[in-house]
Amino acid sequence: MMAALQTKPYALQRGEGQSLQLEGTQVFVMASSEQTGGAFNLFEVSCLPGYATALQIHYAEDVAVYVLEGALTFFWGDEKKTAVAGSYLFQPRGTPHGFRVEGVTPARILYLTCPAGLDWFVIEQGLLTPKLESATAAARYKIEILGLLPE
Q: Which of 27, 31, 79, 115 is the one with CA 20 to 30 A from 16?
């Protein structure tokens, strides 16, 4: 039997956590795999206007997004949904998805994945960038990069 990972309480203020500057974004790792015993990851992501992810599929984790500021369009395959501050979106594993920041205002979101593990890819490659050449690295984390978002 494998011993359970020991976790302990902790608190972070806005702007705290491991900070990563990625193309068009700033990501704060608020809850790492290590901190949650592998239960989940939580990221605070700030994105510049016009920023867009690649269309991608996460096979290993479900994704929940809560919009704190700004306006975004979320894509699930051919479907799209506009989200503004206060919106919540759920993307089950296996769903093609991505998002684009709309308008002239930056966006800020909370990005939750369950179970944990996405933090290692974000740290290693910068998942939230539209670079298609990261597809090989993504595959190691059970993520498939499909291409650019539809217009």
A: 115
Residue 52 per-residue DSSP state: B
Tell me the longest C-alpha to C-alpha distance in the chain: 53
CB 38 within 8 A of CB 5: yes
pLDDT at 127 over 80: no
Instruction: Give tens-digit pLDDT for 17-28.
Output: 888 887 788 999
Range of the domain at 109: 20-147
CATH number at residue 45: 2.60.120.10
pTM of the shown model: 0.87
Q: Is residue 102 part of a domain?
A: yes
Evaluate whether residue 13 is within a structural domain.
no
Enter the tokens of residue 60. Answer: 């290993």
Q: Which pLDDT score, from 0 to 100, does residue 3 have?
A: 46
Q: Extract the runs of DSSP E, i.e. beta strands, from 35-142.
A: 41-47, 55-58, 62-69, 71-76, 79-84, 88-91, 97-102, 107-114
Residue percentage of the chain with pLDDT more than 70: 90
How many domains does one find in the chain?
Answer: 1
pLDDT for residue 78: 83
**Structure tokens, 133:** 């050449």
137, two tokens = 């690295």
